[in-house]
Amino acid sequence: MKPWTDGTTQWVALPFLALSLGAASLACRLNLGGPERLPSPPEPSNAAATEIAQSWTNALTGAVVTGRLEVILTEEQLTSALSARLAGDENPFLQSPTVYLRDGTIQIYGLVQEGMIEASVRLVITPVLDSEGRLGFVLTSADFGPVPAPEGLRASLSGMLSEFLAGPMGTLATGIRVTSVAVADGELAIVAELR
What we know:
Layout: H1 8-26, E1 30-31, H2 46-66, E2 68-74, H3 75-87, E3 95-102, E4 105-114, E5 117-129, E6 135-144, E7 147-148, H4 151-166, E8 176-184, E9 187-194
Parallel strand pairs: 1-5
Antiparallel strand pairs: 2-9, 3-4, 4-5, 5-6, 6-7, 8-9
């Protein structure tokens, strides 16, 4: 066999090259795609993560004097706090989270990995107030790329996100009545009164 002189050896080597590339790609993760993040994602930072606790402390301190609690949280603060919270888990269900606060909803984008498969995910959460003034968060949509989210996963995510997003108000639920909650233009605003 003459190396590369008559062109036939090149054609014999091409299938082996294609097979090698195919085997190499199988060793990598299979990305199923999914929703694209919105432009200009907020960057997480340690300082922004700790600002949430300070915002709640300031709001609660002011409420003791005025009887009214007001707290405003930003996309950067929530992205940072969620990133820090998930970093503490041994196997977080969501990686690289980004929180957007737009049009009355909280949208969380991230990456989900299971074995050799990964997919981009978008969770859409809507804040709700019940007749008693208790604040909750309902997972209204979960887009896991081409794979639908199981109902059990949606319920457990709703519970975890409600706990995370309601902050210290969960421990003070009997002493606080939320009067309004608004999500728009990169901010989550919660207004409540002491009972």
